[in-house]
Amino acid sequence: MFKYFRQIWPLAISAFLGLLLGAFLFIPRAYSSNQNVYKILREKINVLQQIISYVNHFYFESVDMNKVMDGAFHGLMEELDPHSTYIPAKEQENIDEIFKGKFQGIGIEFDILDGYITVISPIPDSPSDIVGLMPGDKIITIDGEDAYKITKDNVFKKLRGRKGTKVDLSISRFGTRKPFDVTIIRDNIPIHSVGAATMIDSTTGYIFLRRFSATTEKEVTTALDGLLSQGMKRLVFDLRGNSGGFLEQAAAISNMFITTKDTLVYTTGKIKESNQVFMADPKKGRNDFSVIVLINRGSASASEIVAGAIQDLDRGLVVGETSFGKGLVQRQLPLDSGAAVRVTIARYYTPSGRLIQRPYEDGNDLAYYGELYATDRESKIDSLKELRPKYSTKAGRIVYGGGGITPDVYIPYKSKINAETGKVIRSAKRPLFNYASKYVASHKEEFNSFDNFRDSWEVNENVFEDFLVHLQEDSIKVIQDSLLANTDFIYNRIKGEIAGAVWGKNEATNIRLQMDNQLIESIKHFHEADAFLKSLN
Q1: pLDDT at res. 101
Q2: Phi, psi angles (nearest 5°) of residue 441
Q3: What is the pLDDT of residue 27?
Q4: Taking a C-beta distance cutoff of 8 angstroms, is the pair 513, 519 a contact?
Q5: Which of 70, 137, 262, 312 is catalytic?
Q6: CA 471 to CA 414: how far, in whole Å?
Q7: What residues have CB less than 8 Å from 286, skipping those under 6 apart?
Q8: Strand partners, 328
């Protein structure tokens, strides 16, 4: 019991301070009442100082006050809403990189496999791509120092650096007898928003958007131009799992599909600067292809702005699952310590006037996020439709507010893989990737054209048996009969990893989409998306 209290007391102190600050500093009624706000703040800060003094003096062991106070700051922000948050200084740098869209380094996606830094993919046009690093390459040494069993944190420290500086690596590659040395000059490395852009068939393009960062508009423009040049007449715009990002970028992406002078999104808040209206510029819009937007419960914020605008303005069809339901706008404000707070400053609304934010209970984040994972989420949403506020699209269709974007066509995600297959797919050893990299190294003559590979090359029983041997050699124990029940899926994943190793992420995605039930079903509804396009032209 004593040990239990020793473990939990620092957390309890932190939580208590957070609740105290959150409950008394920022409760809305403090601002709406006639009480003197500054008097309340002064009194509560005095109480806080007393608590800190008591804890520091009487608590039976030393307390990490940095950790405790960080917890208090987290608690304060959590009392506001689920999306206002405190960001410690050590986390701030990584967040800045993601949303600014670039950092400086050598440019690889990597994992630690068998103790070595393993290249999953060189980032296109990065220094690593230029010098010819390939998926599966293992970095043996960095600047002459052994890199075996290096931590991911140390990888970042050693491989990232100022533009123009060099790093010497020793590389082990499948099919080569000895490691070889390479010198890489660090440069600006883009963090891509577009995860993949590929042609599913001769007329259907596909773009997967990961996030909305500073470079998103430029990336999507490039992707669209590339697909149109290949004959695209219709587009699946995949926003599944996209948790959002910059509001301005969401409006810009929405504008790409809108050729009329309509509202794309608007925000309302307490201060004047929080009230914004984003209008479409017809000159920037495109109407030479039909659109299906694919969403799921992980599509949030900026993703919902895009899906909401396309749905409300009858530009395309929204399919998939009801989205996350985040209709709150945050502004990130720096603190003197190097940390930051992200404060909700406004609500955002779709063109028809829908507030997409789901209801939430202050401080109860567990229930707020837990609701997303309920197995009967869609049926609950559907059963409450009549109680939700109704709005009309530009063409007069009924759409619903009160929580997320409800798709025009509900298509649930279905996965038939069993536990053993899941164990292989999710293994930290990445056996599918390793096997594909090894296979490509010894069968290069098989892969001359992606089109031929996609249409004609198949994983056969010999390849599958060879993969099972690889699992054994990699000490991954599986029940083979269970894997045999999912051979179609495993064959597809092996083929996809091979495509990625030979041609890159777009081609790997192209193969994997062949087993994506939501994508396959969504394409069957393009006649409805085409009808929207015809009504505009």
Answers
A1: 58
A2: -60, -30
A3: 46
A4: yes
A5: 312
A6: 26
A7: 224, 256, 257, 259
A8: 347
Burial of 536 (0-12, 13-18, 19+ CB in 10 A): middle
Which DSSP state fits 515?
Answer: G
Catalytic residue of the set 121, 213, 290, 301: 301
Q: Which of 411, 428, 431, 412 is CA-nearest to residue 493? A: 431
CB 206 within 8 A of CB 512: no
- Count the neighbouring beta carbons within 10 Å of the beta carbon of residue 323: 28
Question: 468: buried, middle or exposed (CB in 10 Å: 19+, 13-18, 0-12)?
Answer: middle
Cβ-contact 132, 125 below 8 angstroms: no
Over 80: is that where the pLDDT of 534 sits?
Answer: yes
The pTM of the full predicted model, rounded to 2 decimals, is 0.81
DSSP 8-state assignment for residue 212 = B
**Which entry of 326, 352, 495, 516 is annotated as an active-site residue?**
326
CB-based contact 239:307 (threshold 8 Å): yes
- Three-state SS string over 216-277 comes to HHHHHHHHHHHHHHCCCCEEEEECCCCCCECHHHHHHHHHCCCCCCCEEEEEEECCHHHCEE
The span from the CA of 253 to the CA of 92, in Å, is 26
Is 218 part of the annotated catalytic residue set? no
Cα gap 120→437, rounded to integer Å = 10
Catalytic: 312? Answer: yes
Residue 135: closest CA among 144, 124, 149: 124
Other C-beta atoms closer than 10 Å to the C-beta of 213 total 22
Please check the confidence at residue 442 and state whether its pLDDT lies above 50. yes
* pLDDT score at 7: 41
d(CA 346, CA 331): 9
Has 326 been annotated as catalytic? yes
A 10 A CB-CB count for 533 gives: 19
pLDDT at site 97:
59
Q: Look-up: residue for tokens 């601002």?
A: 31
Query: For residue 117, which amino acid is it?
Result: I
